[in-house]
Design goal:
Structural class: alpha/beta
Oligomer: single chain
Strand content: 25-35%
Distance between the termini: 21 Å
Helix content: 25-40%
CATH architecture: 3-Layer(aba) Sandwich
Number of domains: 1
Largest sheet: 7 strands, mixed
Number of helices: 7
CATH class: Alpha Beta
Bound molecules: glycinamide ribonucleotide
CATH superfamily: Formyl transferase, N-terminal domain
Radius of gyration: 16 Å
Order of helices and strands: EHEHEHHEHEHEEHEE
Length: about 200
């Protein structure tokens, strides 16, 4: 069985979509651990209610050593690490050990509206302020940078002049829930090949 860990910082609707897709048979994998980087991440309850192992690593206390703690929990335990609304930046040995085996979902079309300090509603406010006609979400590999790794999937949504940042957030979140599970499925089927910045996905 393909094994994953899901890392979260907030409400965990992306985590819930993964749980739902495992339960309805669309995803053939098991969640071995859910890790939150702060004690207020209510999404952790979604995992606990399914008896999935949960861990809270407080980023305020751990600082730069958070990644090492993640590695201690997940080393040799999972095939893939999924960042699903996880706001800490990972570093060090963890990135080397899990090279091309950590993915993140970001709520914009990278390389727009991403990078340091761009998360949650701020991303959508920036997109609305800029006046873009199209936005969306991106699933990408995690590397040493912030939102800089090779891109796996992007899904687009139209933006209208009536849209608030919240409207856009909700519309994109719907697409995120599909995109993240699609990416996990391809990984679990061994259909992802990364060559430098290009990700080749077998049909
Ligand atoms: C999602 O929109 C995700 O793309 C975003 O946080 C939200 C978490 O929602 N992530 C980032 O902004 C990372 N830069 P969720 O907790 O309901 O899954």
């Amino acid at each position: 069985m393909y094994k994953i860990a899901v890392l979260i910082s907030g409400g965990g609707t992306n985590l819930q979509a993964i749980i739902d897709n495992i339960e309805n048979g669309k995803l053939n994998c098991s969640i071995e651990a859910v890790i939150a980087d702060n004690p207020k991440a209510t999404g952790i309850q979604r995992a606990a209610s399914r008896s999935i192992d949960t861990y809270i690593l407080n980023r305020k206390e751990l600082g730069d050593t958070l990644s090492d703690e993640v590695l201690k929990i997940l080393d040799k335990k999972v095939d893939l690490i999924v960042l699903a609304g996880f706001l800490s930046i990972l570093n060090g040995k963890l990135l080397k050990r899990f090279k091309n085996r950590i993915i993140n979902i970001h709520p914009s079309l990278i390389p727009s509206f991403c990078g340091n300090g761009m998360y949650g509603i701020k991303v959508h406010e920036a997109a609305i302020d800029y006046g873009v006609k199209v936005s969306g979400c991106t699933v990408h590999m995690v590397d040493e940078g912030t939102d800089t790794g090779p891109i796996l999937f992007q899904k687009t949504v139209q933006v209208t002049s009536e849209d608030s940042a919240k409207d856009l957030q909700n519309r994109i979140l719907f697409e995120e829930h599909l995109a993240l599970s699609e990416a996990i499925k391809k990984f679990s089927e061994g259909k992802i090949l990364v060559i430098d910045r290009k990700v080749i996905i077998e049909e």
